[in-house]
Amino acid sequence: MAESNVSVSVDVGTIYLGGKEHRVKTACGVVSVIVYGDREKPALITYPDLALNHMSCFQGLFFCPEAASLLLHNFCIYHISPPGHELGAGPIFPNDSVPSADDLADQILEVLNFFGLGAVMCMGVTAGAYILTLFAMKHRERVAGLILVSPLCKAPSWSEWFYNRVVSNLLYFYGMCGVEVRGNVEIPESDIAQACRRLLDERQSVNVMRFLDAIDRRPDISSGLKKLKCRTLIFIGDQSPFYSEAVHMAANLDRGYCALVEVQACGSMVTEEQPHAMLVPMEYFLMGYGLYRPSCFTESPRSPLSPSCISPELLSPESMGLKLKPIKTRVSA
């Protein structure tokens, strides 16, 4: 359970598309957790990327009928938002201390203790993937498996640090309106870019600055990855700026527990850009835990998980826009 000097409060009045919001007060501030499904089932927790929340980061994946049949049938979903990133969040009080990446990982432990959860499945995107990986390294007995999208594991490079300082200054002086996501004449603005711009406009700049500061001060955790013994599934788009980081992370994990899936014609947000490309790898990954899609959903003609509906050659990784990347290791003579 959480420490006795930390109060815990719950507000279950807010409902999001069948889920309920719980506001959990932790040692580092209030955390919003949206819970979907039967709490008697195993738990899957999610953690979004910077400036996003469960709707803007995981909506594409969880709104797929196939993902609903695979994930919601097997899990109760706990969407954890970074402090101040939940829908309708107000600005965090400026005098509150800025949490570190370690603090955010420890917050997850408090959330799990509050709900009485044991070992959980974890799914995170980029900054959220880093926080969940750090949590898994600190509390290995509480993590059954990791599903990571465009993950980070190294400390920021000088170029990333400088870029983040510029963004932080824009947030401080101009708010979210100073951070633009736009297309141009050659590359028109995509629907995802338009949606991101609208969602960024809704974020409180001070809240985003705090999460950005925590990620900008993150330590390199590469050396500790070999100690992770939970199964790990990594997705990375071949056009993602974090491609080399994901390959580096996969190479530093125990090859007996890790698989890396490269999604072609995709950037970092695989959950939004190519959610269907995640389904087959996730299904095989979850089979290792004895979890399967319910038979009543196997008749969906759209489902890439239905061999009876689609010819076998269409189920090859290449035909689905996937490239399975083997992890090469050096063997001493």
TrEMBL record:
InterPro entries (UniProt xref): AB_hydrolase_fold, NDRG
Top-level taxonomic group: Eukaryota
The keyword Electron transport is annotated on this UniProt entry: no
Keyword Hydrolase tagged: no
Swiss-Prot/TrEMBL keywords: Membrane, Transmembrane, Transmembrane helix
Transmembrane segments: 114-137
Pfam families, per database record: Ndr
Family to which this protein belongs: Belongs to the NDRG family.
Protein name: Pollen-specific protein SF21
Record organism: Brassica napus
